Amino acid sequence: MIGKNRILRTSALGFLLATCSLISLVYMEQIERWMIEGFMVLRPGTMISSLWESPSMDITVDLYMFNWTNSENASDPGVKPRFEELGPYRFTERMQKVNVEWHDENSTVSYMRRSRFDFDPKHSAGRPSDPIVAPNLLIVGLYQKMLSWSPMLRSFIMMTLSIYGKERTMVHPASDWMFDGFDTPLIKMSKIVPPNLVPEMNFPYEKIGYAYPRNGSMEIYGHHNVYTGRDEFKKLGQIARWRYNNVTEASPRCKLKGSTGEFHPIPLVKGRAISYFLPDLCRELQVDYYGTTIFEGVEAFVYKGSDRNVANGTDNPDNSCYCQENCQEVRSGLLNISSCWYGTPVFASYPHFYQADPYYADQVEGMKPDKDRHEMVIMLEPKTGMVLEIKARLMATLLVEPRTQSIYHNAQKRFFPLIWADYNVRITDDLLGYVKLIPIMELLGKISGIASVIVGVVMIFWYPHQLIWQKRFMQKIEINSQEATMMTDPVKNNGVEESPLLIGLQYTVSKGGTGNPHRERRGLHSVRRKISVEEDAPLYRTSITAPRSKRGYIKMTSRVRHCARLGIVVLGIFCIVSGIYLFRNWIEMFTRMRGKEMALGPTSRSFDGWKVSPLPLNFDVYLFNWTNPEDFYVGSSKKPRFEQLGPYRFREQPDKVDIDWHNQNYSVSFHKKSWFYFDAAGSNGSLSDIVTQVNSVAHAAAKRAADNWVGRNVVNFANKLLSQRVSVTKTVDEMLFKGYEHPIVNFGKLVTPQEVPFKRIGFQYGRNGSVDFDGHINMFTGADDIAKMGQIHTWNNLTHTGAFEGTCGQVRGSMGEFFPPNLNTNGSVYMYMPKMCRAIPLDYTETVTVHGVTAYKFSGTEHAVDNGTKFPETSCYCVGGKCMPSGVINIGPCAFNASVYMSFPHFYMADPSFLEAIEGLQPDREKHEFFMTLEPNAGVPMDVGGGFQANYYMEPVPQITLYENVPRVMIPMMWAEERVRVSEEIAADIALVPLFVLLGQIVTGILLAGGLICTCWYPTRKVTHFCHSDPKAKANVLRPLTAFGVNSAAVTAPVAQLFRNNTSSAGNDRVGVRLLEYNRGSGVRGESGITESSPRERLIGEDSPDVIVR
């Protein structure tokens, strides 16, 4: 028969197989989506990232040029411009992403795009040498810029244009209009004019062309930053920043969004539009869902450009944020892309004004809109979002308006078509083969799931069916009670009742003699033990039924005990698995649970303390008094000498105002407003103290005017007229919050009022009670990820300040209230400084205790004030390629381009050359270290101290009388620090966080220890019991026959039938029983020679054919 344990195991395995298969069938789409998402997420070194960096798609670009055939009638407003379409000029594109940088902190990747275009004469209808006549877009663009200029400057430029800008049209070969570019007198003139004088005339390139310098250039497409999909898959391939910003310069109200073309939000949803960010348009462009189709055997979603996508903000509110100064006048069908053409009024539309207002096509001749040729069509595979085919078709149009005193003064307002492109992308055959495997794999998965369910169900019911069948055909023979009584008495007397052989076996003997062994074996595990013999046998007279022995109840108890032991083992395994899971994930689980409670929100526990700090904040200011400015000249024997005044303590009362919550990206925007109150008791000096500082305003004005002759003479005249010196003496109050009027500032407001946005000078002037001093801040609330709580997202709506290049100008780090949880000693934390336009890294230095709470101390090190001297990654802090020795940070781009540098107080951790050039400064770590002490589990500040020092770099300015004979010295001006330390009550609340972490670790240890004990106890007990059991127990295990306690006189014939093939043989012809020796009076000895004393020797007779009796 089949064992019950085997039945249970097989049925359990079948149940598990059927259940898992059924679940996989029900959630097949979700499982498939998880697999696709896991494969498509961008990670360094993966196959998908390699394909993304160097796309293996077939990309062609067909360019069509519009030749103005009646340009000689341009001055006649009654004649419509007539255009002839030339082309296509086909180019093959080879696209590559370079300078790839992965950013794990926000799951993005940055890169520059470089494309090379190769002319394909075989598939081109035009030649590169074809002459093309087009409107003079340079003149049109310059007229557009002149609208905001002063009348004097505009008149001067008009005189220049009367010489160099008389032509309404330009004639050049098609190759020049496309990628080669061409030079013009206006571009040469723009290079001569000083950029500071007329910034709007600064043209960045040496030539002009519709696609110049796109071929091989990385700059034309700009710096891209896209999401990798690691934290949120639906963001995969979506634009995060472009040119280090999350908005465009021309449309600051429109956040960047849309796919860059390689990836799309999957699975694609029918009826939902998708959007693309096109750097050629400097904006987002949507395409609408159109339906489904079959693309070479693959199901595809079709998206097409509609009139809604190119409608103005009035007809389509989604485009309202892109409205520029002309948007109310331009009818639907055109998108203003002037910002991408350096202010020239250029608009984008579908070719030949397809799906645009008929007004445009009626203005000119030669336009023939055609759906098949001019419609934008995109086909995507719906499960992966993979591009199957793209036909992106767009046209550039120039707006020409009448302008007084210009060559277009008698022109009508018209839109002139310039060029349109048919951008074709098609999936390669190799990639298409992989896409075709997706439905096949899905079908195979379903078939395998169905088959597994069937197999599981069969396994559940097959063995139980076999057991029932065997029981149904099992033969049962009754034995009468009298014979049972006669047999049981001697058996009991000889200890046979407990014999496993008599209890565990059923055998039969026919009336004619020896029974059929096959029939006998069939009853081996019967519940009722029944024996039948012949009526005339010597011992058996009648048939009786043997009474049920206590052994049956003992066996049932053993089964329960066995199940209990098995349950303990299973419980132990569960505890071990749970312990391992908690060991790996407890901190993360606790962080998520804590994040739901602590995430910043209008009703959260942390809101009140974040909005208005409950801790007293002291703002201490130290000023450096310059004691010998009269000795400041080249060749002087005396170094500049400074004495520190202060501290001048102010009590700060900060507040967050203009709070605006953004649930779409879990962030909050606000302004910080602080009031400062002078604390005379805590100060070492009064606000009326006199202090002498460097005259930074006069020196900055001199440097600004040093590049041109007129400016130098104006500055020399102003310095002499206004009695300027290299230093200025004011009270402390004037130097700080009150400010003072500077004659150079007043003079500058008369000459160039737009370049002087302030009225007074002071280190903290305008800060007291101001909401604009620190700018507009947007930071994450942590509602979606507690690790992002308090991390700044944008500053003044910028994700890149532009003050420094590359990553140095990125807006990142904490604002000081919250830091990422679960800090370690190997990393750094970043703190964003708005007045420095950068984030300051703080490195771990030591572990300290604050009010009994263990905390990590992160301090400003040489890394924080380096500019590439010691840490190559900080080289981008060198402004204009000019690098100072390590220890000072150039913040000129944040301070009106003045020569202002920041350092730690007293040039702590700076290059020794700065201290050697002056006298009076003494750096001290205890006083001048900038540090942030954080509780590592919660990321909460416990103790904050230190600050930064403002310095001015004095250098000679040639041909400026006041400054042409001064040495190069970094002059310290002031430094300030904020000190705050949590109270014992707050520290007690913070201490609960590490306590919960410790409790979790204790529970993890208990689970692991308990699991190991439960898992190992039963097997260890069995092994120990076996190894330390008495010889009798070992004999029962190792010697099957002796364990049965067989009486030779009573059961020789049945034993012979069960364990021998031939009853007449006394040799080794036995089935499953080893030949044993029996020494009368000394027990049973096996082949190993071990002898056991056993009362069963009475049961074995000399005539037993199963033993040798000596």
Defining traits:
1110 residues; alpha+beta; 7 domains; 14-stranded antiparallel β-sheet; 13-stranded antiparallel β-sheet; 24% strand; flat; disordered C terminus; glycoprotein; membrane; transmembrane
- Rounded radius of gyration (Å): 46 Å
Q: What characterizes the major β-sheet? A: 14 strands, antiparallel
| Domain module tally | 7
Tally of DSSP helical segments: 26
**Secondary structure category:** alpha+beta
Number of strands: 35
What is the global morphology? flat
Helix share, percent? 25-40%
Distance between the termini: 38 Å
Q: Estimate the mean pLDDT confidence.
A: 79
List unreliable stretches of 5+ residues.
475-556, 1040-1052, 1058-1110
Strand content: 15-25%
Family: Belongs to the CD36 family.
Subcellular location: Cell membrane
Keywords: Cell membrane, Glycoprotein, Membrane, Transmembrane, Transmembrane helix
Transmembrane segments: 443-464, 563-583, 991-1018
Short description:
The chain has 7 domains: 4-32 and 437-472; 41-55 and 64-135 and 210-427, no CATH class; 481-549, no CATH class; 550-609 and 994-1018; 617-755, no CATH class; 792-979, no CATH class; 1031-1109, no CATH class. Helix content is 29%, strand content 24%.
